[in-house]
Amino acid sequence: MTRDVRSYDVLIIGAGVVGCAVARELSRYNLKIAVLEKELDVGMETSGRNSGVLHAGFNNKPGTLMAKYCVEGCLEFDQVAKELDIPFKRTGKIVVGFTEDDKKKLYQLKEQGERNGVPGLEIIGREKIKELAPYVDGEFALYSPVTGILNPFIYTIALAENARQNGVDFYFANEVLAICLANQENQPACYQLTTTKATYIGRWLINCAGLNSDKIARMMGIDDYTIYPCRGEYFILDKKAGDYLKIPAYPVPNPKEGGLGIHLTPTIDGNVLIGPSSEYIEERDNYAATQKIMDLLLKDGSRIFPYIRREFFIRNFAGIRPKLVSEEQGGYADFVIEERTETPQAINLIGIESPGLTSALPLARKVVEMVGEKEHLKEKADFNPYRQGILCFREQPLEKKKELIEQDPNYGEIICRCETITKAEILQAIHNPLGVETLVGVKNRTRAMMGRCQGGYCQTRIAELIMQEKGKEPPEVIYARQGGNMFTGRVRD
Amino acid sequence: MVKKDVLIIGGGPAGLAAAVKLKKLGVESILILERENHLGGILRQCIHDGFGLTRFKEALSGPEYAARFVAEVQAMDIAYETSTTVLEITADKKVTAVSQKGLQEYQAKAIILTTGCRERTRGAISIPGTRPAGVYTAGVAQAYVNLKNIMVGKRIIILGSGDIGLIMARRMTLEGAKVEAVLEILPYPSGLPRNIEQCLNDYNIPLFLSHTVTDIKGKARLEGVTVSQVDEQFKPIPGTERDYACDTLILSVGLIPENELALMAGVELDSRTKGAIVDENYQTNIEGIFAAGNALHVHDLVDYVSLEAENLAEAVAEYLRQGSLPPCPILIETDSLIGYTVPQKISGLKDFQLSLRVKKPFQNCSIQISQNGELLKAKKMRKALPAEMIQIKVIKSDFLTNEIANLRISVANS
Amino acid sequence: MENLTRNFICILCPNSCEITASFNNDGILRNIDGFSCQKGAEYVQQEIYNPRRNIATSVKVTGGELPLVSVRLTKAIPKEKIFEVMTEIKKVTLQAPVSLGDVIISNVLGLGADVIATKDVPRI
Ligand SMILES: Cc1cc2nc3c(=O)[nH]c(=O)nc-3n(C[C@H](O)[C@H](O)[C@H](O)COP(=O)(O)OP(=O)(O)OC[C@H]3O[C@@H](n4cnc5c(N)ncnc54)[C@H](O)[C@@H]3O)c2cc1C
Ligand SMILES: Cc1cc2nc3c(=O)[nH]c(=O)nc-3n(C[C@H](O)[C@H](O)[C@H](O)COP(=O)(O)OP(=O)(O)OC[C@H]3O[C@@H](n4cnc5c(N)ncnc54)[C@H](O)[C@@H]3O)c2cc1C
Ligand code: SF4
Q1: What angle do CA C93, C97, C98 make, to 5 degrees?
Q2: Whole-angstrom Cα distance, residue A26 to residue A369?
Q3: Mean pLDDT for chain B?
């Protein structure tokens, strides 16, 4: 069997938010870049399975990379959101407490945050809590005005699309299986990557493989990192619950736990998340939800947000933290971003757990800096930092809606009734710049099928449109992952 | 802004029956708005027979039943727009709708909400496990198989014994799939006995009562489920787990009236039916906004949907003539064994149709209507099942005179 | 002496009457009880000696607004013939337009029932 061999300056392994941010930042320069991803879309692992909070940076130890990048990533985000045309809100956040002990911890958090350079932190009382979050319970709270919320899928997609616009190639369904370092004297180092689909050769290797970042490092002969998968489960509540919560509300964190405690987060689209739990597990890709944890979420969540009602549940999901500390050790280890002498021009990003979403771009700039130390980076004259997202019909004023339908009648056809998503938006998502063809790909780009009916009304139509637009037969339509075929065939051939 | 006397939102059997009746009563300015490209509602995918037994004394399929009303709408020249979705309604009866032709605003004197229902989903009942492809609600599976010519799977488990799930068990079997079992968490089936008989028993498909799915397995496509028996509190009983290999899980776990538009206009909903609270005229708390069909409460039989919509039409015609309808201060209360009633309030001035469901199965019982502790009427029933909607015609002369006292509906074993 | 009984659920209408048939020792039907109308009594007779069912399914259509047209039988057929009739129905492909009521297979397998279309499928 012959295999395709493709040559690049930079190979990025993993299309999570970090890999996509690295791709985007490196695409400013004259480099030939490819991103290799084992899944069928970007953001299918941790980057699409988190709270979607742009953290302010008061939870992290002063002096750590986590603290530094988190604060930096948070404060610069207005500009990022503008460039990438993504929804983002600085809602602020409260960490609520009930006891004197809680109060002490909140003051410590405040002080830690101030040392990290987080602006505007304030300890507030019951009255101010009621003002910010009338339905949240708590005696006092730490209030952080700069914390924000964003849609992590859209952010990751936007970074990837902007990178694509600026020349980066994305290869999906390409799981990296082996890495070979050709390191001859007097010759620049070069890496040969074997994936499930092809062979890639690159001078630079950037390991952004998230939960598998230790495995990728091991493929290069670095074997002193171990990722401990730690699962966090969530419930998603209907937008009706969103009316009762406009600001993320967290309990006082237990430092031993290595999570921020079960919290309530409004999503940028108006739903509410309860979670995440924190549970060390064996398998790195076991996203199953369990009854035990579901019960716990309900119980813990109700403590600070008594307004949770069963009828608000629309679905659950889980994410897995790529932790560098075991359950016994507890707490957090700092981000690892390093190039080792024995593997020159290979940069490993390992243990990028929370606040990795917030820190993605600062981490990416660090990668650029490290590459720049080894070779001169020439800026591309035609680099375009602006990316355009799919216009959301629902959010347009009446006159604009009319105009859109006049320009393209497909804006007048509602496909997803719960989220009011039009055929025009679905078609744009099906013809996305990354060439993603899954049903979940359309869902994550448009919010179709995410509403209270969970696709009961629109899924059949969207599957049909994918078949029509991409010339597919039913067995070829994929839900989310390879092997996840939606259908077995026709009723009548 | 286009002006209409009556705007009907939803062109399913409820909307169509209301339109036809209104026209017969002399109302001319009617417009039906339907988001699908055909009239007929959910019936277009219900290709099995068993519709119209009460109304037409014939065993029609869903599409045939709908076609009779569509034919009348067309013969009577009633205006309708298909492929048109209503986005918003307001309390002063402004309606915004979109279609490929553009965005249109309407002002109506009366709005009839016949928007049907949606299915309860996996998330709403929070089944643990992974989230692979191959988990479908029964109505979605039905749409794929009957409308889109797509087979969703070959080896199937059905959770929930609602009618659509039962119908799909038979449908998939006829098309060569193997239905391994139907599971029901309740100790009795939630679908009609005739469907248990002709959809399951005919094809030797086992039905396990007091059982549910406690785990879903498979990373990409469904690979299997774990099934457990449950106790009286619906908690899985440890040690009763059984694993089934399957590629498809079909959920038939309930229908919920679709009322997002109603909520926008400030319509108050009943937490039991999840539909609007209405009076004997099917008028909601917002004057001039009416509701019927599955949007009001989930029906088991389309014949009753049509009947309800026709009763509604009479009231709407009167509303248009008089400009208002008499107040309905008499509330209908229920005992703890009655699931709900529609209407929830009445005027006491006229006959009305009472629809209700019992909460658990009864043998030889009577449904009693009383006022001020005095029994007004009793309906004896050989059996009463939660799956079946019970209809009672209540005649004005049944009431005590000149009394504004609430009616109480109860069920008694006889 | 009545010592054998069989219970039936009448499927002819939503009442779903529970009907009991009793037999004597020689297996001869003695009594039917529990029906609310004549049809129920007839149904049980039929169920004992020659159970019959109607079926509803789809036939492929080309060039139509829908890829399938829904069909049913004009009358019930013996239960054991259901899958044979399905095989016959699967063989057919129609060209749009199809109209409600069109006979698609007449007297299928000589069983005396026609397969008829239950909706219109206009040409596109
Ligand atoms: C429950 C939870 C809540 C969180 N909440 C927040 C929050 O609110 N705010 C915040 O800032 N951060 C949060 N985080 C952290 C944040 O989500 C992560 O730090 C971030 O998403 C990590 O991104 P990544 O790109 O490194 O990893 P990933 O998104 O996991 O990306 C790695 C990619 O590599 C691919 N890959 C793996 N192995 C291979 C291979 N062999 N070949 C090819 N491709 C491969 C994977 O498929 C994946 O797409 C949370 C994390 C969790 C788990
Ligand atoms: C799967 C299934 C199987 C059934 N089987 C049987 C059976 O065997 N026998 C029997 O007698 N009964 C059966 N029923 C019950 C009966 O068919 C239904 O009760 C009946 O169809 C309800 O009619 P409806 O008009 O209220 O709702 P629907 O038929 O659901 O119609 C509602 C209409 O409103 C439209 N609509 C909704 N929102 C909007 C909007 N915003 N703008 C424009 N249009 C909108 C929808 O597109 C739809 O066409 C079944 C029901 C279901 C769901
Ligand atoms: S016996 Fe008559 S009333 Fe009873 S279910 Fe059969 S047809 Fe209906």
Answers
A1: 65
A2: 10
A3: 94
Start-end of H helices in A272-332: 291-304
**Residue C3: alpha-carbon gap to chain centroid:** 31
Q: Which residue has the higher pLDDT, B205 or B54?
A: B205
Q: pLDDT band at B414, cuts 50/70/90?
A: confident
- B314 CA: distance to closest CA in chain A (Å): 30
Beta-carbon contacts of residue A338 (< 8 Å; ≥ 6 apart): A347, A348
Whole-angstrom distance, CA of residue B154 vs CA of residue B230? 27
Which of B304, B252, B275, B277 lies closest to B121 in space, CA to CA? B252
Contacts of A492 in chain C (CB under 8 A): 58-60, 67-68, 90, 93
Domain spans of chain C, in order of start? 4-50, 56-117
Q: Which CATH class is domain C56-117?
A: alpha beta
Considering only A234-248, A355-369, A436-450, B211-225, which range has the smallest mean pLDDT? Answer: A234-248
Which domains does chain A carry?
5-46+153-225+332-372 (3.50.50.60), 90-146+228-323 (3.30.9.10), 393-476 (1.10.10.1100)
Q: Which amino acid makes up residue A300?
A: D
Q: Residues near ligand 2 with C-beta < 6 Å?
A: B 9-15, 33-36, 41-43, 46, 48, 50-51, 85-86, 114-116, 139, 142, 163-164, 258, 261, 293-295, 299, 301-303, 305
Based on its alpha-carbon atoms, the radius of gyration of chain A, rounded to whole angstroms, reads 23
Alpha carbon distance A430, A148 (integer Å): 29
* 8-state DSSP, B300: S
* Complex ipTM more than 0.90, yes or no: yes
Contact yes or no for C27/C4 (Cβ under 8 A): yes
Cβ-defined contact of B103 to A235 (cutoff 8 Å): no
Altogether, the residues listed in chain B come to a count of 414
Band (pLDDT 50/70/90 cuts) for residue C2 is very low
Query: Phi, psi at residue B410, to the nearest 5°?
Result: -140, 165
Q: Look up A55 and say whether it is catalytic.
A: yes
Residue whose entry in the numeric block shows the structure tokens 């359950």: A327
Among residues A427, A218, A493, the alpha carbon closest in space to that of A340 is found at: A218
Instruction: Give the Cα separation of A281 and A311 in Å (integer).
Output: 30
Does the structure show a pLDDT above 90 at B111?
yes
| 3-state class (DSSP) for residue B206 | coil
Integer angstrom CA distances of residue B371 from B37, B44, B358: 48, 43, 20
